[in-house]
């Protein structure tokens, strides 16, 4: 499978000639990455528009923290947080993704203008999710998930993390297809940091080609995550705060784009937007050089 075919196109969304950049807007008071800076609707919409101005192709709006140990908010509160922000961004022409595990939130967000449902549970947390997405014909992100992380429950035991994540994602994709979601509207996500430790995350990043073999566009969401803090700290150091991991995030974005990812999900957009564009330019230069070499070879045998 070529990088371009692995990157793919998601029906119902714009088509980009490179890895897309998904900016993050957390409408939560307890996000691990931004500490509630955009909890207010006006601030959240303003931030989403700023991300677009910095190079985001789409914006992912979420109203529930999924960090380890986080307590779930109730449905009414999640709707109160998310729907006005989705409506505000969509009204400005932004391609909006809604980050939710609840079918009711997904349904109302799609009605408010969202174009994509990003469910970290892949439809497992709410049995109504798949029917709702299938009915609306919306694109759907299927993330690798082994359960809620409340109380620090990680469940990160693997004998072969790449094989197990690929197999479990494949099974989930088959279930989603059986539930009526169209094949060309499914995106997969390895779920970095979810039921995985730093070593698991790094091994998965080193084998994105195996995930691309699922034949679905791939979303990589590494932004500011704990494994980057561990890498930056070294064997004996203290991990830097989440907002000091953006350069490392951009490095992962470049690697993911080079590997053929459809999109990367990030909190700080500018550096990643540059990274994916450089990756695309290098891909293009490789194609030009290959074509030139073929011409030179043909001329040499005349």
Q: How far apart are the first and last residues' alpha carbons, in Å? A: 34 Å
Helix vs. strand class? alpha/beta
Biggest sheet, spatial arrangement of strands: 6-5-4-3-2-1-8-7
Helix percentage: 40-55%
Radius of gyration, CA atoms, in whole angstroms:
19 Å
Topology (elements, then pairings):
Elements: H1 3-7, E1 20-26, H2 41-53, E2 58-62, H3 75-91, E3 96-99, H4 103-111, E4 116-119, H5 129-136, E5 140-143, H6 161-178, E6 186-189, H7 198-206, H8 208-212, E7 219-220, H9 226-233, H10 246-259, E8 263-266, H11 269-300
Parallel strand pairs: 1-2, 1-8, 2-3, 3-4, 4-5, 5-6, 7-8
Task: Describe it.
This protein is of the alpha/beta class and 302 residues long. Helices cover 46% and strands 11% of the residues. The chain contains eleven helices and eight strands. The protein has an eight-stranded parallel β-sheet with strand order 6-5-4-3-2-1-8-7. Strand 4, helix 5 and strand 5 form a beta-alpha-beta unit. The two termini are 34 Å apart. The N terminus is likely disordered.
């Amino acid at each position: 499978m070529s990088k371009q075919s692995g990157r793919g196109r998601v029906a119902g969304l714009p088509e980009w000639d490179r890895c897309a950049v998904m900016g993050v807007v957390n409408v939560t008071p307890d996000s691990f990455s931004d500490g509630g800076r955009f909890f207010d609707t006006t601030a959240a919409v303003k931030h989403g528009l700023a991300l677009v101005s910095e190079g985001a192709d789409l914006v992912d709006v979420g109203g529930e923290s999924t960090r380890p140990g986080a307590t779930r908010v109730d449905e009414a509160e999640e709707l109160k947080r998310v729907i006005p922000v989705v409506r505000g961004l969509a009204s400005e022409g932004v391609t909006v993704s809604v980050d939710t595990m609840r079918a009711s939130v997904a349904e109302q967000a799609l009605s408010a203008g969202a174009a994509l449902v990003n469910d970290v549970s892949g439809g497992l947390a709410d049995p109504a999710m798949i029917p709702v997405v299938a009915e609306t014909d919306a694109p759907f992100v299927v993330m690798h998930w082994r359960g809620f992380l409340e109380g620090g429950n990680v469940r990160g035991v693997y004998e072969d993390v790449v094989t197990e994540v690929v197999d479990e994602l494949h099974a989930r994709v088959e279930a989603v297809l059986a539930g009526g979601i169209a094949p060309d509207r499914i995106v997969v996500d390895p779920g970095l940091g979810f039921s995985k430790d730093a070593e698991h995350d790094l091994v998965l990043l080193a084998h994105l080609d195996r995930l691309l073999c699922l034949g679905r566009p791939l979303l990589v969401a590494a932004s500011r995550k704990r494994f980057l803090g561990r890498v930056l700290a070294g064997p004996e150091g203290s991990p830097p705060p989440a907002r000091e991991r953006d350069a490392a995030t951009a490095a992962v974005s470049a690697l993911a784009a080079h590997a053929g990812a459809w999109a990367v999900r990030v909190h700080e957009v500018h550096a990643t937007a540059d990274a994916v564009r450089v990756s695309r330019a290098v891909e293009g230069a490789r194609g030009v050089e290959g074509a030139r070499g073929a011409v030179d070879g043909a001329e040499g045998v005349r």
